[in-house]
Amino acid sequence: MSAVFRPYSASDSLRSDRSATDRLRHRQKVRQAIRENIADIVAEEAIITQDPDRVVKVPIRGIKEYRFVYGKNTPQVAAAGEGEVEKGQVVGKSQAEGPGSGAGDAGDRPGVDYYETDITIEELVEIMFEDLHLPDLERKKLRESLVVHGTRRLGYRRAGIRVHLDKRKSARQRIRRKVAIHGQQSDAETAERRFPFHRDDLRYRRRVPDVTAESNAVVMCIMDTSGSMDAMKKYLARSFFFLLYHFVRTRYRNVELVFISHHTEAREVSEQEFFYKGESGGTMLSSGYGKALEVIQERYHPSLWNIYAFHCSDGENLRTDNPEARKLAQQLCQVCNLFGYGEIKPRASLFGHSSMLDVFKDLDADNFEAVEIKRKEDLWPSFKALLLHERNPEEMMP
Amino acid sequence: MTRTYDVEDLAHWDARIREKVQEFGLTCFSQEFEVCDHVQMLGYMAYHGMPSHYPHWSYGKAYERLKTLYDHGMTGLPYEMVINSDPCLAYLVKENSLCLQILTIAHVYGHNDFFRNNFTFQSTHPELVIRAFKARADRVRSYIEDPSIGLEKVDAVLDAAHALSLQCRRNPAIRKLSPEEQRARAIAAAEPPADPFRQIHKRVERSEPDLEKVPLEPEEDLLLFIRDHNRRLAEWEKDLLTIVHEESQYFIPQIETKIMNEGWATYWHRQIMNSLDLPQDVYLEFLVRHNQVVQPAPGDINPYCLGLGIWEDIRRRYDEPASTESEIDDLPRKSGRDKLFEVREVDRDVSFLRRFLTKDLVREMGLFEYAPRDDALIVTKVPSDEEWEEIKQTLLHQVGMGGVPVIRIVDADYNHRGELHLQHDHDGRDLQLEHAEKTLAHLYRLWTRPAHLETVVDGESCMLSYDSDGFRLKEMD
Predict the structure, then answer these.
(1) Model confidence over B131-168: pLDDT tens digits?
(2) Do residue B334 and residue B282 come from a single domain?
């Protein structure tokens, strides 16, 4: 029996990242799995409430390694750490099926049912929108609008008005011409001879119109906060706004959010208030639309801003308000890139109640879309419908 | 306080440890240590410690998992990582303290001795291990690089093969019968039993054995069976199945002897460390580390702790038996040491626990049984006089390959359509259905014809099937 020691070599260590390819491949599989399960992931509450730069844990299935393993009615033996255990004592939480002792070695129990991976919301949103197959060209067209902000300087020219005369530049031109004519003579020789400015010496600053590509967008979140909107409905609404916001963010550099909550009257509120503050009372949709138009008028002129408005309601409007709401919705469509209306009906049992979907059905606008959301599983499909509609306005009417 | 050391110091301590190893009578393969850093160690761990191993994304996943756990401080690195090969290969993490290195070296010799002497490892060809892994890696790479095959296809086969890799025979001491022997056995079994009163008994009808049946006897080696009987597989696919099967054959002895092996190494590292005359600070650190290693893991089984406890108990019972125990042991009387060496040769975890886990030990280790009920895990049995044996039985079912359901192929021409019929040897534990479904899908992919698995779900006989329409669960009458 003998022994050999192989000493550590730092260069070997640097070269020996042997798992790199396998990790990459695993990473690809994770992305693939996320893409396949995007609808489930989007509906996860935890993700929607996260702020965008945070890393979230996304539960994914599909890259688990399966084997035949034992499931329920499988008793296990374990050691008590300290002290005695008593019969009937609870020693842990059972997983969906069968006890699991964590993922691990071959022959081990199935671990947690989910495999979790870290991903930033950004990355997630990117995958989400890759999934929509939006052509880049389309994105670009939407991204920029040309706006003239007055003028700016751009070089020099020989003709112009007096106020744009550049004295230094003109003086230099004169000196240049003088040297060209007399050669390098001392000042003493040339001093007595006058050498006046010529018209060709004059240089004027050139000014051009200042056109910049603006990529501003505003997302107007309008929500019905009347008494009939409960927590579940609000959650669905919030999820929808979340998707819309992130979608708009992928296309514009500068995105602002406006929150308008309304019952019979509308107010512009903070995000916090918008999502968490409950109100009561009846509903007049027109108030919300009126407020939105007012805000657009004041701060977000349609020539500078791409406006995305989205309204979530449970569709229970004061009947007499319907014509007015329809009229204002029409106006909103004229100023917005996209105006969406989402009717949230978590319980299907509400037949007989009014629905705004009927009211908006014959709305005459290419950029209007109404969707119905019943469950959180509907979120992604309806959102997709909304965006696909934006892509092909001619295909819009359902 | 921390001592600095270099490779010479390690070699010096190693030489002293080897003296002790010889003195204690351990017989080891020659040993190689490789000093590496923690990143390399994580890399080795992801690939089961192998210096070369075929690529597959699951190892990338394992690495990411280990690295995350390590980065978040959830687990430390294991002190030791030993490979069953001749020469035996072990890694030392260079960031560890001198004491840990000495402890690791001593521990490694324990494993080394166990690998060399325990019967389950006799079929692993330790002298070829490293080369065999390298050769398999080269083969898999050549398939990946082959433009007519490629990564995607290789991955798909490996995914499926990995899912089934542990569905194989467990006890290497039982020889697998060749097809000719199976045939002979089937013929012999069809013969009527010898009957001394043949003349007065009614003549027994001789039933004709069905020698056309495939397989003749229920077959546990799923991958090999598919390789040998699915003519639709290409050569490279068959080779991948062989590779995965061979690899699992190499690891099964380690799965089967986890508790014994760790207990054995822990027992001897303690003996060695105690006899080494260590400097005081090193010795004190050793005591701390050793106690961490053998600390019972609440809610789990710590193989170091359980194994060490049993080995110690065996030695005690033979060297200084309590008066009540003198009757139970075999004759001729052996010394504790001789008994230890005998047991390390002839047992694996299941038999080890069955033979040597006593009531007192079950109590001492605080073993209990728990089972899921509703959403919680509830303690169902505690080591009372009535129930300790049931706890032991449950434990015997969960150690080693006991955690892998026994599934056998009974018919390769089910329904006369070349479909695969398998039977789960149900022992009270149901299969986890989601896993069963996905694994059957893998099986279907490899067999390329529908696969049917007979099992019991909630007390009802069921047939789980997978075919081109997907998964089906059908209750059987």
Answers:
(1) 999 999 999 999 999 999 999 999 999 999 999 999 99
(2) no
Q: How many helices (H) and strands (E) does chain B have?
A: 17, 10
Task: Please indicate, yes or no, if residue B183 is contained in any of the structural domains.
Answer: no
- How many A-B residue pairs are in contact by the CB < 8 A criterion? 257
Q: Which domain holds residue A31?
A: 24-64+112-131
User: Which of B219, B208, B128 lies closest to B178 in space, CA to CA?
Assistant: B219
Sequential DSSP letters for A325-394: HHHHHHHHHHH-SEEEEEEE-S-TT-TTS--HHHHHTT---TTEEEEEE-SGGGHHHHHHHHHHHHH-GG
Looking at the domain assignment, is residue B208 inside a domain? Answer: no
Q: Is the domain of A120 the same as that of A156?
A: no
Give backbone dihedrals phi and psi of A369, rounded to 5 degrees, phi first: -140, 135
B359: domain range?
294-402
Counting Cα atoms < 13 Å in the Cβ hemisphere of B438 gives 16
B49 and B136 fall within a common domain: no
* Interchain proximity A68–B376, CB inside 8 Å: no
How do B367-373 and B376-381 pair as beta strands? antiparallel
Cα of first residue to Cα of last residue in chain B, in angstroms, is 73
**Chain B residue whose CA is closest to A109:** B403
Picking from B22, B37, B159, the nearest residue to A8 by CB comes out as B37
Residues 1-20 on B with a CB inside 8 Å of A are 7, 10-11, 14-15, 18
- Opening angle at CA B373, ends B372 and B377, nearest 5: 45
DSSP A306-337: EEEEEEEE-S---GGGHHHHHHHHHHHHHH-S
Is B212 within a domain?
A: no
Span B326-336, average pLDDT: 64
**pLDDT value of residue A115:** 53
B33 → chain A, closest CA residue: A5
DSSP secondary structure letter of residue A235: H
Coil vs helix vs strand at A58: strand
Query: Does B297 sit within 8 Å of A79, measured CB to CB?
Result: yes
**Segment A133-147, tens digit of pLDDT:** 554 434 444 556 666
Q: Order across the sheet with A76-79: list the strands.
A: A76-79, B367-373, B376-381, A90-93
Q: What is the bridge-based pairing of β-strands B81-83 and B88-93?
A: antiparallel
Using CA of residue B322, residue B327, residue B333, residue B334, what is the dihedral sign? negative
Q: Which residue has the tokens 């930033």?
A: A120
Angle, CA B49 vertex, CA B143 and CA B255 arms, to 5°? 100
Chain-centroid distance of CA B47 in Å reads 16
